[in-house]
Design a protein that fits this description.
CATH superfamily of the largest domain: Glycogen Phosphorylase B
Distance between the termini: 62 Å
Shape: elongated
Radius of gyration: 31 Å
Number of strands: 26
CATH topology of the largest domain: Rossmann fold
Structural class: alpha/beta
Strand content: 15-25%
CATH architecture of the largest domain: 3-Layer(aba) Sandwich
Amino acid sequence: EVYFKNLSKQKQKEVMEKNGNNHKLRVCVATCNRADYSKLAPIMFGIKAEPQFFELDVVVLGSHLIDDYGNTYRMIEQDDFDIHTRLHTIVRGEDEAAMVESVGLALVKLPDVLNRLKPDIMIVHGDRFDALALATSAALMNIRILHIEGGEVSGTIDDSIRHAITKLAHYHVCCTRSAEQHLIAMCEDHDRILLAGCPSYDKLLSAKNKDYMSVIRMWLGEDVKTRDYIVALQHPVTTDIKHSIKMFELTLDALISFNKRTLVLFPNVDAGDKEMVRVMRKKGIEHHPNFRAVKHVPFDQFIQLVAHAGCMIGNSSCGVREVGAFGTPVINLGTRQTGRETGENVLHVRDADTQDKILHALQLQFGKQYPCSKIYGDGNAVPRILKFLKSIDLKEPLQKKFCFPPVKDNISQDIDHILETQSALAVDLGGTNLRVAVVSMKGEIVKKYTQLNPKTYEERLELILKMCVEAASEAVNVNCRILGVGISTGGRVNPREGIVLHSTKLIQEWSSVDLRTPISDALHLPVWVDNDGNCAALAERKFGHGKGIENFVTLITGTGIGGGIVHQHELIHGSSFCAAELGHIVVSLDGPECLCGSQGCIEAYASGIALQREAKKLHDEDLLLVEGMSMKKEEVVSAAHLIQAAKLGNTKAESILRTAGTALGLGVVNILHTMNPSLVILSGVLASHYVNAVKDVIKQQALSSVKNVDVVVSNLADPALLGAASLVLDYTTRRIY
């Protein structure tokens, strides 16, 4: 055994020498309660998995060691971590003075521990009073501090403690772009800030599909079904204890009236927690048949419980942070989380003077399913944090430097472990091909994947998921942070629900299809879906000629004719999501038959299919080919052949193209007289062949007040993918689309 241990040490030494680093980073992780351990544990596992780079010391203090709160240090031991030191630091009491005395007791005990451990860096999480004692001790003893989840805004005294720890910390790991900007505004060195996401997301994003029914039955009973129970977790607000206890009473009254099975967790160790427990016992919660009151639930099991709950209620940060990853409805009570970034699954009840307001919120939220949100992480935080730790140079001066105003306005860094680009997964469902791309905020297509579009619904959805998973994985490697998925598809789409209502004939088995739910569930990302014409208009609004234009119309000239209308900077969908079906504007009562079943539509004249139809007629009559053209026997006649023939002087081909351009121009005139846009953008492969004809028709047929409208050809190479991406990039910060 000794021999193999020595051999292992020798191998570790060789790895470190190869990397040019002979010093292992000694990391002290101090955990104070069940909540911060759920964030710190993934980092601890990561550190433990790389012994060639790190030495891990674990210090446990605070409520972990109190029986009333479940002796939660045991879960650290069950995770196979060696606890170096246990510090009893909680002074029993029910007021603010007890918290102050607990901080003082921790400050008395910590110096001896830190003197013995001599860590290179201490990892401190969050905004608890215990964490303030840890950061103060480490800072005064010249130990580098890495603060997790700094820069966030919530409410109560927690904000002050969190920001105080930020000023003591040397390095910062934040979860959101807003938190990063807050840290910069607080004069922290941008080069020492890592936007990594929340470490707990690394575990919870892979946890939902595990065996959850046994967990639900263990904590709530054998007869409970998924989405048919509530998880309640409420803490005292230390800046207004009386009001928070009153709200807790109203919450329990509302839950009793709502009459659903409910799991109630005991509150944190804070001033007022004992009074909240007395309220629970006064109302008989521990013996009520609908309630299960527990001191602690292991994080792995807690994830399963909230992921499959009908609703979560309370004021825990978990409700506004982690639960959003599952789309579980949340009712956030009071002011404790005021200022937190939230997904659309969170309904706020800021102040409740009766139980009716809370009861009404329960009736609104219970049993709903929202799109999954990844505001706080994408499941890759720990690798980023470990890379960040390895980059720390212990030879750098310990003294902090503050970057006073003017504040840097750049949002990404040159250092590779900080540099990440906000991006979208864009999906384009065409009649022939299925394409998925990673698109940056600036409209750059970073990575693109193309496959033939399958003919059946099952195969198509399976391929979409496979390509999206592959693209999302590759996005991490190219430092892109995926904010969501945007899907552009043919047919009529309900973008509010993410459902394809009716498909075009080019895409089979594609009607009444819910795209949002399966893709959001599989990728844990918000999903937006819209018609390809609307997406083309959005692409122009964000990246093309429509940028900054209040009113404009986009016409797509390709296999079919489609489009999108932007009015007062907003896309028009119409009452039944049928707006901007511009290809089906009728320009002749006795014109050729259209695929929609009508006659004389623009699409029947000017689409690629219409031109191909006319080209075949000419070819069958031996009137298509002219000098300079040739076709192989097996070659299919297409619109491209008609265009080539017209360029080479084929008068019949020229006439067909002229008629098509005139039909399109008449349609544009109708649009000008109806919507009066200031710009018309022609997009698609046929746009350049039609633009002059459209301008001529406008001069001849339009009213004088609209004759001067600008008609331009799109300069976007891939409007469908860019439009799908803009669905995400434009709307990820909005509550409702």
